[in-house]
Design brief:
This protein is of the alpha+beta class. Helix 5 crosses helix 7 and helix 7 (267-282) packs across helix 9 (316-336). The protein has helices at residues 2-52, 56-67, 71-77, 213-216, 218-254, 256-260, 267-282, 303-313, 316-336, 340-344, 358-361, 374-381, 405-417, 423-428, 467-477, and strands spanning 86-90, 109-113, 134-140, 152-153, 163-164, 177-188, 191-195, 204-210, 369-372, 434-438, 441-448, 451-459. It is built from 15 helices and 12 strands. The strands form 3 sheets. A 6-stranded antiparallel barrel has the order 1-2-7-6-3-8. Strands 9-12-11-10 form a 4-stranded mixed β-sheet. Strands 4-5 form a two-stranded antiparallel sheet. Strand 6 and strand 7 form a beta hairpin.
Length: 479
Amino acid sequence: MSHLCDCGGEDINKLKQQVSVMRKEIKNLRQMLDSSARAHRKHLIAIQSAVSKVGDGWKSDQTSLHSLVSPKAALEKGNIQTSPIGYLSSCFSVKNGTPRQPTICGPSRAQLRIQQSVFNNPEHALVGLEHYSHVWVIFLFHKNGHLSSKAKVKPPRLNGEKVGVYSTRSPHRPNALGLTLARLDKILGDTIHLSEIDMIDGTPVLDIKPYIPEYDSPHTRRSTDSETFTSNTKQQKTTSVAENDTDDMLDLQKDPERNGQSDLHSKKNDTNNLGSLLSREEAGCPTTSSSEISAPYSLPKNFHSVLQEVKAYVTQADIFQVNCERENEISDSDKSKPPESVMDNPFYGKEAYSTIADWINAPPVGNLKVRFTPQAERELEEFLPAHMPGFCQSDRPRFKLLRSPDEAAAAIRGVLSADPRSVYRRLSCRDRLFFFTLDTAHITCWFGQGFAEVLQVRAVEPPLLNCDQLTSSQHFAAG
């Protein structure tokens, strides 16, 4: 029996060895495939550069071919050639550690300078933008590395689960366009200063638009529609009551003798007529003068004084009862026939609210607690803010965009609390250090169970900068 167990154990060991060899072979094949793909891309780039260096004859032929298609036809089909209006100067220099959404890292800062190739006077295109607090930034994901895309992707917050690419903010899309809502801090000449950004340094920006909550926020849009609907309804009711008051007033004016014989009428009719007249007097509405009415229907000269005397004998309860009866009549008529304002400006109630996927509010990957080692705190305090003048000869490192070490610490906490690791690193590289760059600081950290700890903060560039660089950086960060 023991002999059989030994044989079985040897077979299992042989199978394990074979599996190990197969894994190594698969790994080698993947490396060969990656190297072949890189070589293929290099060959394509070489071919493209060779084609671009062809003589003037080929260029003229290409120009004649492109001239056959009018710009209008190309625009109608969506075949347009975009050109960036500027390139972003961001505090994030690499993809690693860059926030996936702008609200993750509020202290993050960037600058966008409008190129003169777009407008001769770029600062003129920014006139009036200072009245807005936020702007939409449309940009390109220029660091994707390839132009291919897949129908389903794995968002990091879903921890490996696949969803459709159009239900995510993935940068790997058929058209690598990005959209972010950034805070507008200030505008200096042709340069826009932004914060709460999630874009890498050197990002090509295609367009900027002001953020208007009344147009862009469904919740604000819903409240605006509700206010418009209420105002239209109140206006219609007021118009209806005013028309009824005018009719009663004219009836009383046209037949003064019949109205003077109050014994022939009930108390309710008198109260209605007097209530309408008094409500009209209290509202400050101008009464029709006797000169505007024909002679047979003219009012007595002391009509106004008579109304004032009668007003003292009419109780507030009678007026309130008359108004309540009229409101009931108006409500009954509204039930029978919907107001025209509802047809002109429809209000859909709950449909105006916005909805999002459940995994956005409750993702499988939760936020992390961030802490600094004492050494990392001391190293971060050594950095000088970008707007502090008079330290040209200092050996201490300096930020280019961030305004203080406290702001940098808040930005680091924002980045790490959202767990910037990919799904692969989160599952397969848990015991490895994580590195990312923030402005001129290089951060080293590691992740534990439910927390992230910053181990080291050092300067990316040499700490000694010349005065010309400091002056240019202070020009953009001042204020």
